[in-house]
Amino acid sequence: MKRILSLLPALALLAVPAPADDSAPGAEPAAEAPAPAPHAPVPAVALERDDFYETWIEDRLSLGLGFSYTTLTSPTRPKDYDRNKTFVGFIWKLEDVDEVGVVPELRYRASDHVRLTLSMDRVSGRTRNFNQAKHSDGNVEAIGPMLMAEGLLPLCDDTLFLHAGVGLAYDFADFEEITWWHLGYASRDAWIARGSPKVRTAQDHYREIKVDDAFGLAVAAGATWRPHPRFELDLSLRHVWLEPDCQFGYTYSARKGGFKKHQDGDFTLDHLAVALVGSYVF
Questions:
Q1: Domain extents for the chain?
Q2: Which H or E run includes 146?
Q3: Separation between Cα atoms, residue 271 and residue 74, nearest integer Å
Q4: What is the tens place of the pLDDT at every residue in 100-119?
Q5: Can you name the residues that pair with 65 across neighbouring β-strands?
C-alpha cells in the first residue's frame, strides 16, 4: 500500500499534457489573437444627407433681413371734375407713406450665373381729394411676395458679383378710409362741427373703396459682396409696375343691400425701391 501511494505524484505528472510544438510535424498552429474590429460603417441615410447638403444647400442658400426705401413713380392724375381721369372719385394724387420698411429675403444660387430671390414687396400712399381742399380720403396699401430670377456676373474670386433680373410680385391690396369720409360727411369741417364722432350719425351709409389684389412686373439690378464665406451684403434697386383695380361705392345696412358700387377706378402704384440686405449663407 505504501508503495502505491509513493507512485501517485509521478502518475500525476504524466497526466499533464506537454505544450504543443509548432515546429513538430503535423502540429496545428496556435490560434492568433483576434484583430481589432474596424470602425462601424456610416449609415447610408447619413451619407445621403451630407451629400444632399453639400450638393444642393452649402454656399447656395442664404437667408437675410434688411431695409428698403420705397417711393411712388406715378403719383398724380389730372384734376378732372368729370372723374374720368382721376384714380377714382376726386382722388387725383398719392403721397408716399411709410417709405422705409423691413425686407426679408431668401436666395438660392442655382449655378455660378443664376440666382432665385424671394422677397417682400410693399408700397403705400395717402390719397388727396382735390374737391375737398386737398383732404385725404384714406390710405391705399399693397403688400405681398415677389419672386425674381437673376443673372450673376462673378468678380474678385466670387466675393463680389453684379446681378440683374426680372420677376413677378403678387400684392394684397387694401384701402383704409379716413373717419370723416368713411362716415359720409360732406367735409372734414362738417365732421369736426359734429364733435368728430367715431360712428355713423349724419348719413344712412358708409363711403368705401374696395381695392383688388394684383400682379406686378418687377425688374432689379444691384451688387452682392461676400466678405465672409457665411455672410453676404446685397444692395439692389427695384422697379415694380403695379396697378390694382378699385371700386368706389356706399355700404348700406343689410336690409338696404350692403355695398353698392358707384364708380370703377384703379390706383397706379408703380414704385422704386432701394434695398440693403444682410444674409447668412448656409
A1: 61-281
A2: strand 138-155
A3: 8
A4: 999 999 999 999 999 999 99
A5: 104, 278
